[in-house]
Each structure stands twice: as C-alpha cells, then as structure tokens.
Amino acid sequence: MSAVDPLSDVLRSVRLRGAVFFHVSCRDDWAALAAPARELGPAVMPGAEHVIEYHLVAKGAGWVAVDGEPPLRLEAGDIVMLPHGDSHVLSSAPGLAPIVDDGAWLLGMRDSPRPIPVTYGGGMFRPGERLPGNEASAVLLCGFIACDLKPFNPLIDALPRLLRLPAPSVGPWVAPVLEQAAAEWHAPRAGGAALLQRVSEMVFVDATRRYLESLPEPSRGWLGALRDRQLGRAIALMHGDPARPWTLEELGRRAGLSRSALHQRFVAFMGMPPMQYLAGWRMQCGARLLRESDANVADVALQVGYESEAAFSRAFKRATGLPPAAWRRGQAGGAPG
C-alpha cells in the first residue's frame, strides 16, 4: 500500500474554497475592525459552514490583534490567518481604535469584481476606493477560505487563533503567485476569478503544512499526533483503509504500541480514543461519497465500513443532524462551489 498523507486527505475532504476579496490601501494612522467569520461569512462566502480569513501585507507594515492575545507585528510579505474566525483588528500601531461600521456596504458590493477596494486612514473609511500606490503607506490583500466542519474536520481545532507566516518562511512560490493575483486586480483577464480563488486555497495549504513542520515535539492535538511516529502511523492506517474492521489490537500492533498504550496515547494527544476518530473519519468519507458519487446510501455504507445502511444512517444523522439522503439533497441544492 502506498504511503497515506492524512493532512492532504482532510484538506481534500473538507472542500476548501477560496477568494481574494479585498484590496485594502492605508495611509496615516489607520485601524480596521474585521467582524467574526460567523457574521462576515454570509456576505463573503454564502452557504459556507466555516470561513477563515487571511491577510497578506503587500506593502508597508502593521499589526494584528485578537482579544486575549498579544498583538503581532506584520511586515511586508507576511501572511496572517485567523483559522477560528475570530474578530480582529488590523492597524498601523497597537491600541488604535478601529472604525466601526454596520457592514451594510458589503452586502451591496458582494457581487462587485474582486478584490473590492477599500481605503483606511486618518479616521477615514471609503469602501469602493483605492489609493494611488504612491500615496498608500500600507497595502493588504484580504482573502477568505471556506471549509466544511461537518461531519468531521479535525484540522481547524488543531490550528492556533492567529497563524502568522513571516515573509522568509513563506514558500518560494507564494510571492510570484500573489504578485500575479495583484496584477489580475489591476488588469482583469479571463479566468482571473478562478486564479484568485486558487491562490487563497494554495496559501492556506502551504501555511498549514509549514505550521505542522514548525511544531515542537511533543505537541498535542491532531497535528501533533501526525508528527508522532506511532500515532501518525495509526492515523495513516485508518485513512488508508477506513472500511477495514480495525481493532485496537491490530492498530496498536501495526503502529508499534500495545492496545492500552495506543488508547492512552491517542486520548492524551487528541482527547478521543482511536475508534472514535475512526468513526468520525468514516463519516467524512461517507459525506464525500454522497456528494461526489452516484452510489446509493447502502453502497456508501459498505464502502466506509458499515455492514448495514441503517447503522450508517444513524451514525451519519448523529454527526450531521440529517439522514444521508436528506444531506445529499441539501448539498446538491445549495452548497457553495
């Protein structure tokens, strides 16, 4: 069996959809308040279960802050992400009071060509306007990535509230791709919207991978478990063959741990036992099959390790709130692309 990459597995299954939404130009003292994703999401990515916001500092510098965390300095070329969708303030200096608005303008401009220009500075806030490049002391590209949380997404909880990638650690391919995205804004071309969407997705994947590589050992959580040799092996086994009737004994033996040691170690890292993780991943695999294939529910149940359609349907409803057939109809009728 070829090597399985659980991180790529999850990233594929939770349906990343991206968009570069705002081109923000700033001058003088400036501070912008970004609403929490649960409020902003319906305007920028309707129908998304979860929305992650990110910012690229294309020019100048600034600060980002969320409640309860120290502010972070951002330099040109840095990328910062808000994986949990926290409200946050971007500013030219820590502690500046942001301009607060009701967001009505955003709904009115939702269908405008993207990225939408916005200007801040000296107490000024002008949606739909962009400063000339030589007048802007700071320029940010602000994007969003939508993903599914249900039935099972172990990644989001494993990421920090603020995920900063300093410019030197950003992948060497990112800068030219983002420069191309900026060029698309200045001179729109056919296919530009698709390019901007893919840029957001690629940036998120790269940021997640680099965060995983930067984790100290040992680190708890799902990403920490992936880096642990024995737990990572157990997770890869479950991802590689979710329909197999795995037992703790077999998983432990193949991962190099006893049955009890695997259980204890898994719970210590992830807060759940291995069989609960397997059940969640089977639900996610089933959701993907329901969405992407024409297989009937009974066949989907067999493909993800359930001996009966009824048992799969009960588990799926517990995970999503809907029976498989109703969930599939909802995906076909209104899921975002």
Describe the overall structure.
The longest helix has 23 residues, at 192-214. The protein is an alpha+beta fold. A seven-stranded mixed sheet has the order 9-8-1-10-3-6-11. It has a four-stranded antiparallel sheet with strand order 2-7-4-5, with no helix packed on it. The protein contains 14 helices and eleven strands. Helix content is 45%, strand content 18%. It has helices spanning 6-13, 37-44, 104-109, 155-158, 174-186, 192-214, 221-227, 229-240, 248-255, 259-270, 274-292, 297-303, 309-320, 324-334; strands at 17-26, 31-34, 50-59, 62-65, 72-74, 79-82, 88-91, 116-121, 124-127, 138-147, 163-165. It has two domains: 6-214, Jelly Rolls (Sandwich), CATH 2.60.120.10; 222-334, Arc Repressor Mutant, subunit A.
Strand order of the largest sheet: 9-8-1-10-3-6-11
Shape: globular
Residue share in helix: 40-55%
CATH architecture of the largest domain: Sandwich
What structural class do helix, strand and pairing data support? alpha+beta
Poorly predicted regions are none
Hey, roughly how much beta strand do the residues contain?
Answer: 15-25%
Distance between the termini: 32 Å
Count of domain modules? 2
What Rg, in angstroms, do the CA atoms define?
22 Å
